[in-house]
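Please go through the protein record below and see whether the fold suits the sequence. Record follows.
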Amino acid sequence: MAALGWLTPRRRSATARSVLAGEAAAEAARKSSQEQETAEALGTPATLELLEALEGPEAAPPTAEPEFPVAGDDRAAAFFDLDNTVMQGAALFHFGRGLYKRQFFQRRELARFAWQQAWFRLAGIEDPEHMQDARDSALSIVKGHRVSELMSIGEEIYDEYLADRIWPGTRALAQAHLDAGQKVWLVTAAPVETATIIARRLGLTGALGTVAESVDGVYTGKLVGEPLHGPAKAEAVRALAAAEGLDLGRCAAYSDSHNDIPMLSLVGHPYAINPDAKLRRYARQREWRLRDYRTARKAAKVGIPAAAGVGAIAGGTAAAVALHRRRR
């Protein structure tokens, strides 16, 4: 698993480091996807989770716009943000829990991750100090470890903590694009290895994520460019589209966060999924499509995810306490 980094949530122009991060993410995503295709061609397909029968209005495939996605349009693709769009909460927190369980770091570091997760779910925003802290912590944790080791552990952690946190409605949207013959990519500030595992387990094409430097298969504790966040996500999508021959005007993008407005603005079909307050306002002003898979009562509190409130804080901090007690 690579390191996760975050940037301040305000919008800004893409910098050289954003471009570098985006191009690195696109290159890593295409390489991973090509390796997967080769493995399948040789008769060794990766383990995929079959899409379960989805019930209820929030899990139904999109029916309001029957003309989209367009079947057979191989110049179109879909790009999905991960945290609070495809899954509930932040992927890094749950991978941190798994690494703590395997004694990669101490209890006080897990408690800090738990607080950051609770804040993220309560406020529906990404605090820059928390993001910087999470990035630095993750870099120090993985430094000196082999990429293959973290990938193997990541598979286990997905089963332990993430499999039950996928939003059925968003997953159905992704499946609609796959059924139409289009490629579907995750685009996230989470480590590219983490994102790739999640994408593979959901049957998606691949993932664009933050790329951590490695030498001879060992993490150095440095990033390539900067975290794939905000403008860097847009640069990654732009680079991948150029490499894949996609027409961005025919592509779709999905996110919950106003930080992803640069990415959403690139495509012809932007969707606000479980949107925070700023994205909801922005999307309504531009008549973007909105979908909310949280409960009606909590979704009504604009900008506050469905798991917010006292329960989120209790759940986040309880994770550290419970794991500590279990170890004792």
